[in-house]
Amino acid sequence: MVEKRTATETKTIAHGVKRVNDSTLTKGKTRVKTQGVNGTKKFTYEVTATDGLETSRVLVREEITKQPVTEVILVGTKKPSCDPNYSGACVPIAFDVDCAGGSGDGPAYVEGPVYVIGNDHYRLDGNDNDGIGCE
């Protein structure tokens, strides 16, 4: 006995990923702008069965039932505005930087503590030279 019927199958369409440079984000930072979403595709087959066993399967229709959404990741390209000679707090890059609440006249200030990891050219650790400034 030969029977014909239709069968459907749904498969996932993986979403893509696109990386886009962003000059407003600091270099090395990333942010998801658009969350990726997988799509789906439906396949419809004409199936022939002989004596209850499938003997052929012919694809008769293929349709995307849900479009995938590409994930967009922003990649920072902006140079950091923090002095790389210090860590623990963002020491701005300026003509002169002083500890906030201290006796310095700026024009830029930083809240401590900050750790000197390079050249202490702003002399933030000028008092005791223990590697920690604005204590």
Can you describe what's shown?
- The protein has 2 domains: 2-77, Resuscitation-promoting factor rpfb fold (Single Sheet); 81-135, no CATH class.
- The protein has no helices and 11 strands.
- The protein has strands at residues 2-13, 17-26, 30-34, 39-50, 53-66, 71-78, 86-87, 97-99, 108-110, 114-116, 132-133.
- A 3-stranded antiparallel beta sheet has the order 1-4-5, with no helix packed on it.
Beta-strand content: over 45%
- Helix share, percent: under 10%
Put simply, the count of helices is 0
CATH-derived architecture of the largest domain: Single Sheet
Overall mean confidence score, pLDDT: 92
Secondary structure elements and pairings:
Layout: E1 2-13, E2 17-26, E3 30-34, E4 39-50, E5 53-66, E6 71-78, E7 86-87, E8 97-99, E9 108-110, E10 114-116, E11 132-133
Parallel strand pairs: 2-6, 8-9
Antiparallel strand pairs: 1-4, 3-6, 4-5, 7-10, 10-11
What attributes does this structure have?
three-stranded mixed beta sheet; 0% helix; Resuscitation-promoting factor rpfb fold; three-stranded antiparallel beta sheet; rod-shaped; mainly beta; 135 residues; 2 domains
